[in-house]
Amino acid sequence: MKQELIIAGFGGQGVLLMGKLLAYAGMNEGKEVSWLPSYGPEMRGGTANCSVIVSDEPVAAPIVQEASAVIVMNRPSLDTFEKNVVPGGLLLVNSSLIDVKATRDDIRVYYVPVNDIAAQVGNPRTANIVMLGAFVALTGIVTPEEVLTALRHTFGPAKEHLMPVNEKALAAGAAAVAP
Amino acid sequence: MAKKLYKGNEAVAEAAIQAGCRYFFGYPITPQNEIPEYMARRMPKVGGTFLQAESEVAAINMVYGAGGSGARVMTSSSSPGVSLKQEGISYIAGAEVPCVIVNMVRGGPGLGSIQPAQSDYFQATKGGGHGDYHLVVYAPGGIQEAVDLTMKAFDTADLYRMPVMILGDGMIGQMMEPAEIPEDYQPIVTDKSWATTGGGRRVINSLYIQPDELERVNLRLQKKYALIKEKETMYDEYLTEDAELIFAAYGTTARICQSAINMLRADGVKAGLIRPITLWPFPDAPFAAAAARDGVKKFLTVEMSCGQMIEDVKLSVGGRKEVAFYGRTGGMIPMPRDVYHYALSVMR
């Protein structure tokens, strides 16, 4: 199994963290992983993205151009990265902030209102975790449990109190794309 | 010990500490800022010294001083900053002082861009400063290798009493991969009776005003370099055994070529890769051996530059086969699909 993923959004939406959590979870499941962030001059107030690879095989190029999946958290990211999804690949769109549809018909597109779901869950800042829940549920590339372990590791003891709401957010994301 | 997820810059910094580095002098510049940041946090906890110098020039001269006293010492920077260090590096090479210098290369010339590049190959391998000297230059292809080579760099520096460079690109600095940093690493022990420790009169200097004396020093350095070439050359090969097209690439670019090679092989094109791990000494032998094989039709050098390592590839191939080139520059990254298409055009 292999996922070559691009995650993109505004700086501050937690797209780099989403990628790190996937890489960390994949590593803990014994898979080969890499995480490569954009670190360009556009970061302040602009867009951020990262390439993440989770694979059973050693990772060759760490930069993703032909993505098996793309997650877009804002409109400019949809415009930029929709073309990078391979035919038959997966596109996850944050429909809370993106009010247009994808233009391609040769890929699988899911519209998930992650900001709205995060607000319902009780913490608007968990929108990225909602999206991660949807992605993990659709691909099965890592288990939700490992994502939570990765998140707990990232938070550390001082933010343990944030775990329950994030756990809810992850499950809500999965529910949003359940068949 | 379990693997941890490390950012390249942080992995290099921690590996240096585990290798016994207790002095770090540097000045901030993207894309290597996580190294001084990590050292600032970590050095006080292991009884070491972190100092942000007033400039790159000051930092490299602090390295000269600490190395001269026999300590394991490192500095890191990125391209424009490493240019500023060149005078000091030449002095350190002349005075035969061990130290480790990290260059996480960004686009150039000038202030350039902050994106990944490999356009400092000439500077790193051909003597960026003045005089007949070399650095051992290690080019890691991933985070685990960055760890291993950083630790080895301190041993190599001590063993041969010379500056050693880790030449990464912005991607090596910024990406995260699982790696293991051994905590029980035993540094090699060398005789440091030359070090200026305050015990007796010892002189560390690169000034030899008598030309015959300086010539003797240079000839001795050349002997040392010949020994290093014999003993320390490192490279890796990927699917070269039956290859008709041999890629030459180092660092992250080599991994991009691996992806391209996998695409080519899926199409029935027999491609392989020779990846220099030491850029100096350059691994001539595998290129010469491949050039002598009938099955090998062509070489293709891929770099994030306008073509620098290709000169060493051509020297090694010795005119026996054509050496083609594909490069992106200024901080642009060659994509596997583009490399694949170029390789197809070369083989057509």
Secondary-structure blueprint:
The complex is a heterodimer of chains A (179) and B (348).
Chain A: E1 2-10, H1 15-28, E2 32-37, E3 47-55, E4 67-72, H2 75-81, E5 85-94, E6 108-112, H3 114-121, H4 127-139, H5 144-155, H6 163-176
Parallel strand pairs in A: 1-4, 4-5, 5-6
Antiparallel strand pairs in A: 1-3, 2-3
Helix pairs in contact in A: 1-5, 3-4, 3-6, 4-6, 5-6
Chain B: E1 4-7, H1 8-18, E2 23-26, H2 34-42, E3 49-52, H3 56-68, E4 73-77, H4 79-84, H5 86-95, E5 99-105, H6 121-125, E6 136-138, H7 143-160, E7 163-169, H8 170-174, E8 176-179, H9 211-232, E9 235-238, E10 245-248, H10 251-266, E11 271-276, E12 278-280, H11 284-292, E13 298-303, H12 309-317, E14 322-327, H13 336-347
Parallel strand pairs in B: 2-3, 2-4, 4-5, 5-7, 6-7, 10-11, 10-13, 13-14
Antiparallel strand pairs in B: 1-8, 6-12, 9-11
Helix pairs in contact in B: 1-2, 1-7, 3-5, 10-13, 11-12
Mean pLDDT of chain B: 97
Please give the CATH class of the largest domain in chain B. Answer: Alpha Beta
Characterize the overall form of chain B: globular
Helix content of chain B: 40-55%
The separation of the N and C termini of chain B measures: 49 Å
Question: For the report, how would you describe the main beta sheet of chain B?
Answer: 7 strands, mixed
Q: Quick one: CATH superfamily of chain A?
A: Pyruvate-ferredoxin oxidoreductase, PFOR, domain III
CATH topology of the largest domain in chain B: Rossmann fold
**Uncertain parts of chain B:** none
- The CATH architecture of chain A can be given as 3-Layer(aba) Sandwich
Determine the N-to-C terminus distance of chain A. 22 Å
Number of structural units classed as domains of chain A: 1
List the chains of the largest interface with their residue counts.
A-B, 19 and 23 residues
Strand order of the largest sheet of chain A: 2-3-1-4-5-6
Strand proportion of chain A: 25-35%
pLDDT < 50 runs, ≥5 residues of chain A: none
Secondary structural class of chain A = alpha/beta
N-to-C SSE string of chain A, H for helix and E for strand = EHEEEHEEHHHH
**Oligomeric state of this protein:** heterodimer
SSE arrangement of chain B, N to C: EHEHEHEHHEHEHEHEHEEHEEHEHEH
Q: Radius of gyration of chain A, rounded?
A: 15 Å
